[in-house]
Write a sequence for this structure.
């Protein structure tokens, strides 16, 4: 068949594979190349052995361009890749082989080099399976060399390429006696032959690497949209997560011991959210956020014990025009009051809870609030405050009311009575994207307890802000609870945070919860009900290094592979973290921030 005439043929019912075979068989065959027409010589070299290191983006780009290869004018060199989505199933059988291989290699004084290499390959496969999920591909690399009229030129260039590739750890196979099958694999109209691919297994790479050469295959997470979640250690690519998309929750849990980078990560996430147009509300338990708030134009609110300032939990939110939300305003007041009382009393009984509620009902009765008639809920000025509630509780002679009064007396008539000295009404400026409530100065003892109570007092205000931002429809809202262990250990407060975690998405918001005590997320490890709910309703989970006792709690209660917790134990003082992407599996990452930004996030040091 003359060159070019086969291009005019029609398939006419033949299978595609048969059609291609007919085309290839019409060419002149040779053990080391294929001759097209009478004078175009084509040789295909296949990547047969790869370097003993991960394949990164720069490496593939080097192969793609074959820099340094100088071919004569009559020779054309082309690098062609074939891809197939990899399916990795690391089940018991693979694990059994892996463990047997470990025993054999470790048990021999001079292990077989091929077995050492096999073990290393299995380790990489296992790592890809756990850290990359299913986002991997088999890749086959072919180097196609074409020469017009002179096979000698083609031979010289092939030798040069094979030697150069060998120097960087790649062995190219000349595919002697298989040039026609290889031609079909690299032919522009060709379709991969599964039998040929099985005979020559490809190299497993992550799809992020593939997308660096062919972005249309999978896109890239580094698309400029969303918050910055650090750089992947494996691929060196930046992780950007769009927290606005989708209808499900976008809540985030951040866990890590002190000094491991958790606070820096959290503050960087907050700044990313602000850059994406979020309003961010932060509950600061120890003053870490004051500097960044004041330096970047945020609204800083000092509600520590010494100031006596607080947001009255009994303040009834204004109507906003959303029927469902407007109907829940008194429930928000009740929830904020009960959470505050429960934290200050260090827990309350059902009888004491009823006593607190009776005192609230007395206040409603005095100002003629009918809980069944929302028309009676609105006033020009707030008609009562928490001091009025305390007086109503004092007038209740029920045993439970007296017991509750004894628990709370220190905050109303005792040495901490200035806790409720100045009630504040907060207005957030329209151009403000960060609000920080400093509710404590220490994470330990009575101050932490008061801080958790001040946090609870603010809950009604937070819900009101969420409702108003939803109505405006201008921006999303993120609520951040840093060092949340005290709040989550209180049943009332954790219940509230759990509720917030479930409904916040409907108000165009998300929740970020940070702690160095992951055991608070599980009921059977002394955590409140809210801790369990937050764990279940958090899409992203971020782990920095933890103490062994806390890692044990994670291993016992969370459905996390042992390989992941084993890796977690190796992160000490690396400032690296593990993150679970719902659509990508686990990734090991690290934040890379400019010095001026890191200076804003410093949490330790002497005053200058």
């Amino acid at each position: 068949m003359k060159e070019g005439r086969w291009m005019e043929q029609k398939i006419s019912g033949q299978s595609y594979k048969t059609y291609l075979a007919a085309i290839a068989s019409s060419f002149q065959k040779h053990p080391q190349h294929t001759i097209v027409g009478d004078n175009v010589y084509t040789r295909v070299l296949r990547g047969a052995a790869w370097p003993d290191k991960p394949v990164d983006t720069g490496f593939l780009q080097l192969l793609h361009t074959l820099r340094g290869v100088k071919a004569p004018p009559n020779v054309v060199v082309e690098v062609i890749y074939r891809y197939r989505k990899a399916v990795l199933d690391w089940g018991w059988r693979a694990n059994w082989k892996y463990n047997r291989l470990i025993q054999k290699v470790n048990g021999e004084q001079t292990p077989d080099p091929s077995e050492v290499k096999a073990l290393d390959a299995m380790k990489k496969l296992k790592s890809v399976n756990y850290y990359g999920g299913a986002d991997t591909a088999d890749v086959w690399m072919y180097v196609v060399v074409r020469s017009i009229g002179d096979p000698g030129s083609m031979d010289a260039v092939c030798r040069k390429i094979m030697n150069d590739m060998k120097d960087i750890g790649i062995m190219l196979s000349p595919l002697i006696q298989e040039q026609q099958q290889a031609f079909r694999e690299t032919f522009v109209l060709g379709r991969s032959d599964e039998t040929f691919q099985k005979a020559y297994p490809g190299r497993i790479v992550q799809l992020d690497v593939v997308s660096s050469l062919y972005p249309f295959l999978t896109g890239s997470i580094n698309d400029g949209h969303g918050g910055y979640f650090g750089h992947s250690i494996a691929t060196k690519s930046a992780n950007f997560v769009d927290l606005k998309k989708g209808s499900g929750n976008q809540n985030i849990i951040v866990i890590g011991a002190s000094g491991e980078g958790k606070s820096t990560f959290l503050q960087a996430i907050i700044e990313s959210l602000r850059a994406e147009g979020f309003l961010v509300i932060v509950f600061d338990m120890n003053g870490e956020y004051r500097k960044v708030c004041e330096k970047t134009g945020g609204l800083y609110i000092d509600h520590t014990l010494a100031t006596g300032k607080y947001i009255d939990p009994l303040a009834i939110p204004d109507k906003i025009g959303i029927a469902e939300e407007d109907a829940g305003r008194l429930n928000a007041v009740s929830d904020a009051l009960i959470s505050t009382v429960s934290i200050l009393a260090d827990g309350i009984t059902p009888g004491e809870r009823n006593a607190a509620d009776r005192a609230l009902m007395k206040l409603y009765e005095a100002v003629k609030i009918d809980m069944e008639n929302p028309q009676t809920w609105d006033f020009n000025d707030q008609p009562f405050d928490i001091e009025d509630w305390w007086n109503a509780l004092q007038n209740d002679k029920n045993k439970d009311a007296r017991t509750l009064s004894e628990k709370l007396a220190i905050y109303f008539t005792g040495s901490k009575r200035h806790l409720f000295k100045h009630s504040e009404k907060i207005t957030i400026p329209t151009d403000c994207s960060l609000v920080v409530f400093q509710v404590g100065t220490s994470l330990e003892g009575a101050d932490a307890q008061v801080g958790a109570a001040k946090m609870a007092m603010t809950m009604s205000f937070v819900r009101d802000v969420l409702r108003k931002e939803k109505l405006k429809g201008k921006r999303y809202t993120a609520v951040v609870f840093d060092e949340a262990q005290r709040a989550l250990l209180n049943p009332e407060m954790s219940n509230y945070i759990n509720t917030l975690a479930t409904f916040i998405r409907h108000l165009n918001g998300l929740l970020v919860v940070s702690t160095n005590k992951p055991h608070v997320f599980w009921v059977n490890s002394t955590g409140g009900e809210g801790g369990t709910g937050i764990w279940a309703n958090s899409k992203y989970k971020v782990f920095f290094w933890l103490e062994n006792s806390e890692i044990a709690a994670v291993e016992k209660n969370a459905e996390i592979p042992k390989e992941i917790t084993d890796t977690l134990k190796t992160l000490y003082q690396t400032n690296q973290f593990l993150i679970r992407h719902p659509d990508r599996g686990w990734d090991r990452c690290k934040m890379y921030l400019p010095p001026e930004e890191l200076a804003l996030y410093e949490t330790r040091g002497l005053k200058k």
